[in-house]
Design a protein that fits this description.
single chain; 5-stranded antiparallel β-sheet; mainly beta; disordered C terminus; 6-stranded antiparallel β-sheet
Length: about 575
């Protein structure tokens, strides 16, 4: 099982120990000594038999002692029985491997029983473990995790996160919005200023003044109270303007001047924690950490860019994604110039060479949108269903759309159908305009490639290989000169090259190691960019350089966990049609 949580001990100087938590089904807790070489000190299989009563869970055999370990973590005998007062938080620990503490995207099955495990900040022999129905304190004695008594007379709850506080205290957050304060391993109270109302607390981080919690749409800042009846009070509540997600992780800088947070909609924000006294709660006090907002996950939880196109005359990129949004990016300023959220998921997008219009394909219709200063206004709806591929001509006076196996060419100004291209038996994966817009190449999933005369719709050349599947294509040249070349991604793990004017194979195929998807060709024809498309594996962007007419692999760049969009485009005006 993969590791789902890692925590470093807070020692004087470099950390000496690491605590790792494995995933389902065993949820194995492992303590490592990393002072010289990595060495296992103790392990414990937490399993699914957790309880809030402080028991170790599982059978006695689950806790094992590593050979040659000392009687305690620090080698000086058993540690003390209480949490030692000290610094407010241990060294930052973060979920890894995609799902983190919340579990909705980890792929581990129905929820995550164990979410967090970390050290007491001043006593590395004491460990706290929390999760769904699990809240335990463990002590490392004689190379094994031993349970510690916890006076918590409450029904089992879904504990989302916890944080260590000074003065023998720890705060634990639940999915119902309760903040439980535990002192000297005894339950003291539910803090009176807890969010409650079933407002799930999904992140918690402590600092010198108190602690910060994150949840739906924003965060709460808690500070020490002089009233012994509440210990900590909610000083301020800050919301992320326009956010429909929840904060899933928090991190505080060592100086405690700044706070960073991430949301389940794949956004990252920074917050001036040192200015909380003067910040107004009703203002937008969060700033995007990267300067622009990313595409988030869709209704099914998957986050993927499904379409992308590059403008010719302006430094703009248009994208659409599973989050039902269309975004216009300025790749020179690294900003998002416009965002439009729709009620349904867009499947494809094409931007006009002028940068003033975009075509967006949906399940029921193809929509033409005008790009304004602060909005995208609907201009025309066309009866093209399930459009997965659309491309403007280089001159911008025409656009071609793939309607399953049929390609239609429209007048860009009147939106009238000029030509219909028929011949493919299955869906068309790529529509490629030649440089002078007089010819068009279509690449189909049925293993067919056709060269068309745009004005008349006449098929000029063809290549058929029924037992193959073509995923994407890229063209260099006007498809008239014999120097024009076409590159196609094939299902047999090859990149094939053709003479674009005749569609005759050049027999200079390049074999690759993984299934490829979208591709883009540099405008000078010297570099080819190809993205991988293996389901469930991280995406990769590979660059091929043209040498003596042959493609040679140059560089491999690894990306995120989603496969790229299975379409490509030509590089235009300094940018290229990268895959999603």
């Amino acid at each position: 099982a993969r590791a789902t949580w890692v925590s470093f001990s807070n020692d004087n100087g470099p950390s000496k120990f690491i605590l790792t938590l494995g995933g389902a089904p065993d949820w194995t807790l492992v303590l490592w000594n990393i002072e010289r070489t990595a060495k296992v000190v103790a392990t414990l299989k937490l399993g699914h038999s957790g309880s809030t009563g402080g028991g170790a869970g599982g059978s006695a055999a689950a806790a094992t002692q590593a050979p040659g370990t000392a009687n305690s973590v620090n080698g000086e005998g058993p540690a003390r029985a209480s949490i030692v007062p000290g610094s407010p938080a241990s060294t930052a620990a973060h979920g890894i491997g995609g799902g983190g503490r919340h579990g909705s995207s980890t792929g581990l099955g129905g929820g995550v029983p164990i979410r967090q495990a970390d050290f007491c900040p001043t006593d590395t022999s004491v460990v706290c473990v929390s999760g769904n129905g699990v809240l335990r304190f463990l002590r490392v004695i004689e190379g094994a995790f031993r349970p510690m008594a916890l006076a918590l007379k409450r029904d089992p709850q879904n504990f989302m996160c916890h944080g260590w506080l000074p003065e023998d205290r720890i705060v634990v957050a639940t999915d119902t919005g309760e903040l439980l304060l535990i002192e000297n391993f005894e339950f003291r109270m539910v803090l009176p200023t807890s969010p409650l109302n079933n407002e799930t607390i999904t992140a918690l981080r402590t600092y010198s003044k108190g602690f910060v919690t994150g949840g739906p749409g924003g965060m709460r800042i808690y500070e020490r109270s002089d009233d012994v009846r509440e210990y900590y009070k909610c000083a301020k509540v800050f919301k992320i303007e326009g956010s429909v997600g929840r904060i899933v992780e928090l991190a505080i800088s060592p100086s405690e001047d700044n706070l960073a947070c991430s949301t389940d909609t794949n956004q990252m924000y920074s917050f001036a924690l040192s200015n909380t006294d003067i910040l107004k709660e009703d203002s937008m006090n969060f700033e995007l950490l990267t300067g622009c907002g990313f595409h988030g996950p869709g209704l099914d939880g998957s986050a993927q860019i499904t379409g992308m196109d590059v403008c010719i005359l302006k430094p703009l990129i248009a994208t659409c994604g599973r989050d039902r949004s269309v975004r216009i990016w300025n790749y020179l300023e690294k900003t998002v110039d416009g965002v439009k959220i729709f009620k349904e998921e867009p499947h494809s997008i094409a931007i006009h060479p002028s940068g003033l219009y975009v075509l967006v394909g949906f399940t029921d219709k193809l929509r033409l949108l005008s790009l304004l200063m602060d909005d995208m206004r609907l201009v025309r709806e066309l009866p093209v269903k399930g459009c997965k591929e659309a491309q403007y001509s280089n001159g911008g006076h025409l656009f071609a759309v793939a309607n399953q196996a049929i390609v239609q060419i429209f007048d860009a100004y009147t939106c009238e159908v000029k030509v219909q291209l028929r011949g493919h038996q299955q869906a068309v994966r790529s529509v490629i305009w030649a440089q002078r817009d007089r010819r068009l190449i279509t690449v189909g999933k049925d293993g067919n490639i056709f060269l068309w005369e745009v004005r008349t719709g006449t098929r000029l050349a063809e290549f058929m290989q029924p037992r193959a599947t073509f995923y994407a294509g890229a063209l260099f040249g006007d498809a008239e000169a014999l120097t024009s070349r076409l590159f196609v991604v094939c299902s047999d793990l090859t990149i094939r090259s053709f003479n674009a004017a005749t569609l005759q194979p050049e027999h200079r195929d390049v074999t690759v190691e993984s299934t490829l998807g979208g591709m883009a060709l540099a405008s000078n024809g010297r570099a080819l960019f190809v993205g991988s498309a293996e389901e469930g594996r991280p995406s990769m962007l590979q660059t091929f350089i043209m040498k003596d007419g042959t493609l040679a692999p140059k560089r491999l760049v690894r990306g995120g966990g989603e496969p790229p969009a299975s379409r490509g485009g030509e590089e235009r005006a300094g940018g290229f049609g990268a895959t999603g």
